[in-house]
Design goal:
By secondary structure, this protein is α/β, with parallel strands linked by helices. The chain has two domains: 181 residues, HAD superfamily/HAD-like (Rossmann fold, 3-Layer(aba) Sandwich); 65 residues, Glucose permease domain IIB (Gyrase A, domain 2, 2-Layer Sandwich). The chain contains eight helices and 15 strands. The strands form three sheets. Strands 1-15-14-13-2-5-6-7-8 form a nine-stranded mixed beta sheet, with helices on both faces. A four-stranded antiparallel beta sheet has the order 9-10-12-11, covered by helices on one side. The chain has a two-stranded antiparallel sheet with strand order 3-4. A hairpin with a 5-residue loop joins β9 and β10. It binds magnesium ion.
């Protein structure tokens, strides 16, 4: 892996779309969630004005911007409200893409997850390690204080499903199929692009497939995912800020 400082103008020559992971990349890591009975409280993070301006500038230069997150659509729309006309949102780990008000569904997980959901609810209810279920449509996300053997054991019994622990929550996903790479492949179809036209940046285990599917993968956490280039997770700027500054500088635009 090379430091981002070594990214050149030539590297950018074929790039038409830039894919950003959200948590740990455009906003700091960490989700505040609390669930008591039927009441779930979830904090919405805001995107800094600086990143909004940077995304607008990239868009003006002709780059397509795709946001690829494990979060739900309602949350991403809230976070990116000011720039929705300029971006597409791929949500719940590649399950679907929102673009200009239209939704493209990439996977149907209903049959595969409907039986496990009540089992997970049952084990979560009296477990003080569980903080709550994040509202989702296609995946199951369970926030926990620390890794939880009981949850892992339940999912393990279902051969078609897999858990992914990201340091604060489990995503329960359809093995191999339900990944951010699925979302990217469909986004490339929507925009008629090839792998070489895509640059992607992510910081966590669920970005592995996404980064592999892109022409220029950028890791925002070397200890969790591999890229062609890397940005430090805890640098002076957020990883997305660092990347956008670099691209805008290479294109001769002030950031
Ligand atoms: Mg992330």
């Amino acid at each position: 892996m090379k430091p981002l400082t070594q990214l050149s103008k030539k590297d950018l020559s074929e790039i038409k779309m830039i894919v950003f992971d959200v948590d740990g990349v455009i906003v700091p890591r960490g989700t505040k969630i609390k669930q008591i009975g039927n009441t779930t409280t979830l904090e919405t993070k805001v995107i800094n004005q600086k990143q909004i301006e940077q995304i607008k500038k990239l868009n003006k230069l002709g780059f397509l911007i795709n946001i690829s997150s494990g979060r739900g659509l309602y949350m991403l729309q809230e976070m990116f409200r000011d720039i929705l006309p300029f971006i597409s949102l791929t949500y719940e780990c590649g399950s679907a893409t929102w673009y200009k008000g239209k939704i493209y569904q990439h996977i149907n997980s209903f049959e595969r997850t409907k039986n496990i959901f009540p089992k997970l609810k049952k084990v979560a209810i009296k477990n003080s390690n569980v903080k709550g279920f994040e509202p989702k449509e296609f995946i199951i996300t369970i926030h926990c204080k620390r890794p939880d053997k009981k949850i892992e054991a339940i999912v393990k019994k279902d051969k078609g499903l897999v858990t992914l622990w990201n340091g604060e929550a489990y995503d329960v996903l359809i093995k191999k199929d339900q990944t951010k790479a699925l979302g990217l492949r469909h986004a490339m179809e929507i925009f008629k692009l090839n792998k070489k036209n895509v640059m992607a940046i992510g910081d966590n285990y669920n970005d592995h497939e996404l980064l592999q599917e892109s022409g220029i993968p950028i890791s925002a956490d070397k200890s969790r995912v591999k890229g062609k280039f890397y940005v430090p997770l805890k640098g002076k700027f957020l990883p997305a800020d660092e990347l956008m500054q670099k691209i805008l500088a290479l294109k001769g635009v002030k950031s």
